[in-house]
Amino acid sequence: MDWLLLIGAGLLEVIGVIGIQRVAHKNNWTNNLILIAGFILSFMLLSNAMATIPLATAYAVWTGIGTVGAAIVGMFFFHESKSWLRLLCILGIIVSVVGLKYFG
Fold first, then answer.
1. Of 3, 5, 43, 95, whose CB has the highest number of CB atoms within 10 Å?
2. In a 10 Å sphere around its CB, with 0-12 CB exposed, 13-18 middle and 19+ buried, how is residue 81 labelled?
3. Distance CA 5, CA 74 (A)
4. Burial (0-12, 13-18, 19+ Cβ within 10 Å), 11
5. pLDDT exceeds 90 at position 101
6. What is the tens place of the pLDDT at every residue in 14-47?
7. pLDDT (0 to 100) of residue 102
8. SUPFAM superfamilies per the record (predicted)?
């Protein structure tokens, strides 16, 4: 169950990052709500997940999901680069996070 909370926390971090991007383009109530709610809910789930998941693993997985998620959202919704080197780096993050789960 705590791993589901951690995955949810990572996905909500991506929502928070989307909120940051939206606020950067148009600072209004809705975009600020997306930013704040995404991060608050993300931290709440991360905190609950860390009841049984070690700090280093939980934080690495949380930031890995957030980093990969933000990069993918940036590529598909904000027209950021989709170069093969960038995709290779994203794959490296995924492999590292999976490695922490299975070898930690």
1. 5
2. exposed
3. 24
4. middle
5. no
6. 999 999 999 999 999 999 999 999 999 999 999 9
7. 84
8. Multidrug resistance efflux transporter EmrE
Helix (H) or strand (E) holding 25: helix 2-25
Q: What is the pLDDT of residue 41?
A: 98
Tokens of 27: 């600072």
Q: Whole-angstrom Cα distance, residue 30 to residue 44? A: 21
Angstrom distance (rounded) from CA 11 to CA 98? 16
Residue 26 three-state SS: coil
Please give the model's pTM, rounded to 2 decimal places.
Answer: 0.90
Q: How far is CA 54 from the centre of its chain?
A: 18
12 CB-near residues (< 8 Å, 6+ apart): 38, 39, 41, 42, 45
Q: CA 15 to CA 10: how far, in whole Å?
A: 9
CA 67 from chain center: how many Å?
5
Confirm if 90 and 83 have CB atoms less than 8 A apart: no
